[in-house]
Amino acid sequence: MRSTRAHLPADRRRTRLARTAAAAFAATALLACGDSTGPGAGDAITTLPRDLSAAEVAIVSRSGGFGLDLMARVAATDDRPNIVLSPLSASMALGMTMNGTAGTTLDGMRTALGFEGFTQGEINAGYRDLIDLLTGLDPSVTFGIGNAVWANEDFPFHQSFFDTVTTAFDATVEAADFAAPSTLDAINGWVDDATEGLIPALLTELDPDLKMILLNAIYLDASWTESFDPADTRSASFRRADGSDVTVDLMTRTEVELPYAATNDYVAVELPYGGGAFVMLVVVPHESLDVRTVVQDFDAAAWDALVADLAPLTLDLVSLPKFTVAHDAFLNPVLADMGMAEAFTADADFTNLSPEGDRLCVDFVRQKTFIEVDELGTKAAAATAVGVGPDSFLGVETNRPFFFAIRERLSGTLLFTGIIGDPTLEDAGPQEGEGMCN
After folding, report:
1. What is the pTM for the complete model shown?
2. How does pLDDT run across 332-381, given as a tens digit for each residue?
3. Which helix H or strand E contains 89, and what residues bound it?
4. What is the CATH number that goes with domain 3-39+52-223+325-388?
5. Contact predicate 205/212, CB 8 Å
6. Which of 32, 159, 221, 324 suits 398 as a labelling partner, its CA being 20 to 30 A distant?
């Protein structure tokens, strides 16, 4: 396998751009964009622009299972009131990284991501097709995906790896001096641009001994199909998990027809954005149940059952608190438990990344997310870095901890998931974590 140091021709450093519904997105020259032909802004979207292949269906399903498992495991170990994750961002960053692995390290990452039984080529094609499908799907929703690789210029890498991530993930590739402060500034600057300023910085420091940083960023700016009237927003009590109350701004709509489901454990409602392809699914457990317990029961089968049970129903009331939440998580421990433990150790095999890949491992996986929900809609962003180195009325009243998922309804892709235990707490600060390379 041919190897090269991380000095690439200029055409390898550019993101391949296509048209998108938002002209401002194209101006950033950072995000993968989709063709905006198809439904016009405001048109209801009831089908995908094309049929999903069997491989795509499987990839979306498996990646959805990964996202639910990831949320359940983080919810079990992270006791901060609010958790917001992006399964899609984590999956794409790790999907790029997986192309550099071999042997049992590859097997472990494939297991963690839920892709057992698929070849690397099939997985890459699934990611490639998903990027093309999701970006530009709804002209009234701004949604973008960006991928990038920063390679330490003094370390050899296989050109074939760079070729793969640029082709399958539209990734930009930059060679840089990891000891230079300007490199950290450039990485954080890319994240800032790719998330439209919602995540101004992802990394607080850059270890010069690291050999590669792999990045994914996603950005969503979506208006509700039918907005909440600010005149109907009222102060209300929100009961936190510990039994204490906090006052929130509760958005409300009455006499509204929306997809609804109810079980012995929860009630759920789906709130559409734009033309209806992108939605927020809000799940409110019954008062006797803890939201984290309910989330931990959401395996792929339970999730599919919930989605299948959603049916339009006229509800007396739907309420949702306004909230702004930033979240910062190191995902190493949960990913190791999900099957890719070897990737974090000295036994890791990154020989498809570098001719010296037998001495590389994943040092950290860090994800930052941001979400803002108000009467008009939702702005959300996520950035993931992989560092490689040595009741009586019928309705849904969200006045207690709840789970939410923002998904593309037609393909089933999970974009963001979250637990909101205190809508007034904007940022609990970074989670402590450290590298795991042995």
Report:
1. 0.82
2. 999 999 999 999 999 999 999 999 999 999 999 999 999 999 999 999 99
3. helix 87-98
4. 3.30.497.10
5. no
6. 221
What's the gap between Cα 68 and its chain centre? 11
Chain CA centroid to CA 201, Å? 17
The answer to whether the beta carbons of residues 266 and 259 sit under 8 Å apart is no
Whole-angstrom distance, CA of residue 177 vs CA of residue 259: 52
> In this structure, what token pair is assigned to residue 135?
């970006």
219 or 420: whose pLDDT is higher? 219
Give tens-digit pLDDT for 316-329: 999 999 999 999 99
Residue 38, number of CB atoms within 10 A of its CB = 16
For 108, residues 6+ apart whose C-beta sits below 8 A from its C-beta are 339, 340, 341, 342, 343
pLDDT category, 295, cuts 50, 70, 90?
A: very high
Sign, CA dihedral 155-156-158-162, equals: positive
Q: Are 423 and 346 contacting, i.e. CB atoms less than 8 angstroms apart?
A: no
Q: What is the pLDDT of residues 159-174, one digit of tens each?
A: 999 999 999 999 999 9
8 Å CB contact between 330 and 433 = yes
**The pairing of beta strand 395-397 with beta strand 311-321:** parallel
Q: CA 419, 130, 350: angle at the middle one, nearest 5? A: 85
Residue 408 has pLDDT above 50, yes or no: yes
Inter-residue contact 349 to 105 (CB < 8 Å) = yes
Place of tokens 């009455």: 254
The shares of helix, strand and coil residues in the chain, as percent rounded to the nearest 5, are 30, 30, 40
C-alpha separations of 349 from 50, 92, 208, 335 in Å: 38, 20, 21, 17
Q: How far apart are CA 156 and CA 353, in angstroms?
A: 9
Vertex 332 angle, CA 329 and 337, to 5°: 120
Kind of pairing, strands 362-373 and 377-388?
A: antiparallel
* CATH T-level fold of 230-321+392-420: Alpha-1-antitrypsin; domain 1 (2.30.39)
Domain residue ranges in the chain: 3-39+52-223+325-388, 230-321+392-420
